[in-house]
Amino acid sequence: MRPVFVRSFGALALWAGLLLVLCGTASAAPPANDAFSSAIELSGDHVAVLGSTAEATLETGEPDLGATRSVWYRWHAERSGVVSVRCAGWGEIKLGVYTGTAVAGLTEVATARAGCPESLFAFRAAAGRDYQIAVAGKGPEPEFELLIERTGDPPANDDFDHATQVLSGNGPIRVTTEGASREPGEPWHAGSPFGSSVWLRWTPQRSGPASIFPCEGTFHPAIEVFTGQVVSSLASIGYGAGGIPGEGNCSLGGHGGTGFPAVAGQTYSISVDVPKGLWGWAELFLSEAMPPPGPSIARIAPRIKIHGDRANIRFSSNYGGSAFRCALDRGAWKSCRSPKTYRHLRVGRHRFSVVAESAIGGTSEPVVRAFRIHAPKGVRR
Questions:
Q1: CB of 304 within 8 A of CB of 293?
Q2: Which of 91, 137, 144, 280 has the fewest CB atoms in 10 Å of its CB?
Q3: pTM, rounded to two decimals
């Protein structure tokens, strides 16, 4: 009878353990800041807070961050300035910053859906305003550290309306994204919400192919070119998905640059963004279409060398590789090369003409130079 008792006792213990597990699971409480209305209050220029999304839920109407659970924080901006928000950890944690007082009626300020530690962005905070911060997750690692830091003043060209005017092409342009952020309605540059953009504005004087590419810097920027006058309704005409060839002496190699067909008089807005919302500096080159070629111009050397009855004449063109045709006095035009030597010339005044011909500039206007052959000493003419 004892073996039966042992087996019965073992089964009873198994059921008791399972019951304890089930009861423990059922009694696990969600985080205190699971609900939007119970958000943890935060303030200060430098905030670091540990948290977890374990056992958290989603509320009806809350913004979709692609997660299955979320917790809430409410940060009060004591001063205006650029604020960076990021998370530390390795879970599938997403971040969202909003304004508003009702979970179903929030206005998005900035979001990052990449997961820790890639979830990072910056936004422009206004003094005295409350910002609702959602930390959402769906993976097996719910723990995180939320970091909020006021970084200072943004670059002067952080906003679309304050873009830096580029006055001429084919020159270096230095930009910094230190303290930069996205603004409401700003498009996702190169198809991704990087979140640290600055703006350039350029109006070309000539139509033709143009390009802008990074040369030096601390990061490979994402560069996108737009037309339009309002940041929320811009039309993209080119972005650096695969990069374009840069100059050989550029350390960044042109990766992240873009080319586009420029139209003279059309204003283009150019965004310079940083992958993952990081900050740094870069030197860019904006290359515009070369001016149309001018006409061929033939030139005759200032001095014609006279030796008795011979004349040695040098000439050139503004385009290398040009061909020439020459004529002396009223003679026919003939192909010639510089220097051209005429022999057995009669004493008196002569008239030399030359034209240059090139595939670029066409045929030049004739250039004429007069010279004189003098009689030998002691001979009267």
A1: no
A2: 280
A3: 0.53
Q: Give the β-pairing of 164-166 and 198-202.
A: parallel
Q: What is the DSSP string of 282-313?
A: EEEEEE-PPPPPPPP-EEE-S--EEETTEEEE
Under CATH, which architecture does the 298-373 domain have? Answer: Sandwich (2.60)
Judge whether 216 and 246 are in contact, CB under 8 Å: no
Instruction: Tell me whether domains 36-152 and 160-287 share a fold.
Output: yes
Give the distance from CA 165 to its chain's centroid: 15
pLDDT digits (tens, 9 = 90+) for 311-321: 999 999 988 88
Which CATH code fits 160-287?
2.60.120.380
Q: How far is CA 133 from CA 75, 203, 277, in A?
A: 7, 40, 17
317/297 Cα distance (integer angstroms):
5
Ramachandran quadrant class, 242 (left: phi over 0; alpha: psi -120 to 50; beta: rest):
alpha
172-193 pLDDT, tens digit each: 888 988 878 778 888 887 666 6
In 3D space, the residue among 117, 56, 55, 59 whose CA is nearest the CA of residue 92 turns out to be: 117
Sequence ranges of the domains in the chain: 36-152, 160-287, 298-373
Pick the CATH number of 36-152 from 3.30.2010.30, 1.10.1200.10, 3.20.20.140, 2.60.120.380: 2.60.120.380
Paired tokens of 327: 């004529």
